[in-house]
Amino acid sequence: MDLNCSLKCTDLSSCLEGSILWVKETGHLLLENRVGLKGDKSCISVLTMNLLMGNYRRYTCRFVLADKVKTEVHYTPVFSDSTDWPPLSYILLILRITGLILMISIIAVVSTRTRGS
Fold first, then answer.
1. How far is CA 75 from the centre of its chain?
2. Coil, strand, or helix at residue 113?
3. Rounded Cα–Cα distance for residues 48 and 86 (Å)
4. What is the dihedral of CA 103, 106, 111, 116, to 10 degrees?
5. DSSP 27
6. How many CB atoms lie within 10 A of CB 64?
7. Could you say which of 9, 62, 88, 96 would form a disulfide bridge with 72 (CB–CB 3.0 to 4.6 Å)?
8. Which residues contact 17 (CB under 8 A, 6 or more apart)?
């Protein structure tokens, strides 16, 4: 998922690398962003999120000029439940089912042998 943050600029020289920053709710700076220009005099930054980034509830886009925060916007992404499982989840599910079947088989064999003795 991508979060987009854009700012209309009268002076595109203020749209420099590092002028738009992304911050997690913990206050830590995120480095996973790209800053660029759009044709309509907008400075834009894109934060590409993935599930490995952690379960944070809020991300902040900050416009910084001369080491001062000029404005910021807070994003609260909403992840919907999806039927698309990552491959690792399928593998773990198969391992759990296999383990359960193996335990049931061992219990059945042990109980059959102890009853027969």
1. 13
2. helix
3. 18
4. 170
5. S
6. 16
7. 62
8. 35
CA-nearest of 43, 48, 53 to 18 is 43
pTM, 2 dp: 0.56
Residue written as tokens 């920053």?
A: 21
Measured CA distances, 107 to 24, 39, 95, 112, 114 (Å): 49, 69, 18, 8, 11
Sheet holding 29-30, edge to edge: 29-30, 20-24, 59-65, 68-75
Using CB atoms within 10 A of its CB, is residue 86 exposed (0-12), middle (13-18) or buried (19+)?
exposed
Helix (H, G, I), strand (E, B) or coil at 54: coil
CB 19 within 8 A of CB 63: yes
| pLDDT tens track for 49-101 | 766 565 667 889 988 888 899 889 998 877 666 566 677 888 888 999 999 99
The predicted pLDDT at position 95 comes to: 92
